[in-house]
């Protein structure tokens, strides 16, 4: 019953979009919680994350495969399982004629790993979320099986996960589902030797019905097979069941998977119309009759508590035949609603809709849907408005990995990323380039970020040999529909992106037709939000942009290789295309879906420095790159060959004020794609490095995005014993309009920031040790001062925890920063000495890092070199054991440093 989209709204300016929610299926907000909360009546959602046995093999141990693939040799003994897996998609294929029928037979049943009698006691014991590849080791050779693009980690191979499930007597007659939030990749599931189904796309969340295969008692054997090819991605995908897994137990008649859609209309501070669609399904053998009621309550996402009831939908009685699914629509009014909006200008208020099914007067199911009440307006001239007020998009792109923790999702690690981004002044995230963890969307809803939720990085045309193009023909419809149904109630999600830089931009009408098809699927599922696909090649006079609701430009907005420093580089040259697209599509909101692609290594400065405001990073004098150390200068002027400095992007956005804003490539550094040095492991694009330390660009964005913040950030550091008497440019990032720089008390000149200048730069400073002081002014008033001093030798270590009290739930983390200081307590900015971390008490060191893309030491080690003065240790408390955890850092012959953490059950 997903309404068909009524074509007019989106092609006309000012599409009103309303919001939605998020489904929680009766579980608490935090994924820290391991035990099921005292569940809503009639429904249990049990965390299945603990106690798995795990085996990985780089050769095929079982002769099974999903389908033929370029990287595999098929023998006459290989069993192809695709025909048995495809039916798992049926709920997400709308045309009944295209749904799949399961063939006879039970392939794989002879494989020992699927059998209860198989002895897996030699296998590793693992908990989920699990990423088998992250502990490494890194491949360092030139022609490694997994190269720099995919992070040089052992992501490939076939793996098996096994565990037992127990079925209580009370479960008799229930429908029991396995819900897998993400498994990388080609998941196939057996229960008690029976092939249940599977889902190949590693970023999709999916449900399998275990009911027919379960037996009473504790001895149900679950076995999950994954197969993760090389050359499957342009970045690090991770490997394993890297998101949460749940067992859902319900009455045969229940609210279906992702079975509610809440949207809002006519939103004002006085009232809002709320529409709900509830899908009820009867998975049993007999018909049933149920009453369906839904109440709306205020919701506090921090405590997870529902507040007062504010409205209700009319109760309805429905009859369901065995196997039938029915949709019920209803509308109601919420008076004086508290509207959802992004921080800091607005508050992300949430509501929760509690749907109950009654058999006579007995409640037999309870299903909770978190949502927000808000209106969105997308306008070609005015950009984005939320609840009628203009909000400039100050966004970043984020990949799914969590640095040293890999792809294994962790709520606290994701929250830390968002906290740092919020402090930066960022209000929007583009989920590059695939469906994110649902818990990340819990955070964006609660913390008030705007989200572009993206499904695919490629369609039919491949980017790498084993990427999604292999799955696209069979799976694009179910992957896209299931993705939207999963996320459609999220207030933070403002738009769907159905593709990133797809090859179909190059195929004229055929490519545009495919774009239109995916766009139409998105609208069938969700008529309330625009659908887009980002364009790094398509031009205003092509067909492709006609198939998208929003003009989402990757790099083309500010121009590609269009200024003199980029002359002579290979590849397309594009002038700034914002004006061209605006002329052709004046009604469509336009934004930079990827901007900048500035490259830098935190705390690294190479000389001489370009005099330009944007230049490609090149391995030559003044080019900003050092191929030996694999570092790029952090003056934040050097870019990927297709990129632009932040300054150049800001200038273009200011030239074309109808542009709604930007999503910087990238917020945090991520694993893989180490442009320009593919012998490294992780990216150079981030505003924040892989370990979470701020690069200089952090302050450049902060001074633009939080113009009221009184900061003046000086670069570089001032420890240059080898540069005595040499020109060493000094740049300052600040929202001020005037600045004066002093070196050892002597003025180096006062500067006024001209229009289209976004930094103060003194490019002729001759290095002498001592102190740099900058004093800044805005509108003639003093604004902010700052100083940078030449430091002494390293003399001490300091440890600082981001949080000293953590929960003993096996998931919560403390991120501990190590700083190498001189005897006066100044950070020694080039210190690269090695530290040993050790720990006592009920915790463990999960990983260490330092943010250097070229550091090829495994994240799992406790010995770590500092990088430009900093290192990071990530500490996790053990499950169920409160106590004091002491983390120590030793090394370099100094007194050790320690930090004390408390873990509490
Ligand atoms: C139910 O909702 C769908 C889409 O939201 C719409 O097409 C349909 O007309 C609605 N039906 C009723 C009875 O309101
Ligand atoms: C597979 O092929 C090999 C040689 O090509 C042959 O010896 C073997 O009997 C075949 N196995 C099956 C199961 O057909
Ligand atoms: C489209 O515009 C580009 C310039 O942006 C031009 O080179 C090309 O010839 C145009 N193509 C058509 C079909 O008009
Ligand atoms: C930078 O220096 C080069 C070479 O001296 C000169 O050609 C160019 O115009 C300068 N660019 C700027 C922006 O000053
Ligand atoms: C900034 O530095 C100047 C010059 O040393 C001094 O006069 C002024 O008081 C300082 N302002 C602040 C806010 O510290
Ligand atoms: C720290 O490292 C630097 C350079 O790598 C080295 O010169 C210095 O001796 C080291 N300090 C200690 C205390 O190990």
From TrEMBL:
Q: Where does the record locate the signal sequence feature?
A: 1-26
**Which intervals hold domain Beta-mannosidase-like galactose-binding?**
160-232
Q: Where is the Glycoside hydrolase family domain?
A: 797-899
DUF4982 domain: from which residue to which, for each copy? 725-784
The UniProt keywords, alphabetically, are: Glycosidase, Hydrolase, Signal
Q: Could you give a single Gene Ontology term from the biological process aspect?
A: carbohydrate metabolic process
Q: Which residues form the Glycoside hydrolase family 2 immunoglobulin-like beta-sandwich domain?
A: 260-374
Which Pfam families does the UniProt entry name for this protein? DUF4982 (PF16355), Glyco_hydro2_C5 (PF18565), Glyco_hydro_2 (PF00703), Glyco_hydro_2_C (PF02836), Glyco_hydro_2_N2 (PF22666)
Which is an annotated GO molecular function term of this record? hydrolase activity, hydrolyzing O-glycosyl compounds
Residue ranges of every copy of the Glycoside hydrolase family 2 catalytic domain listed in the record: 384-538
PANTHER family given for it? BETA-GALACTOSIDASE, BETA-MANNOSIDASE
| Family the entry assigns | Belongs to the glycosyl hydrolase 2 family.
Protein known as: Beta-galactosidase
Q: Which organism is it from?
A: Helicocarpus griseus UAMH5409
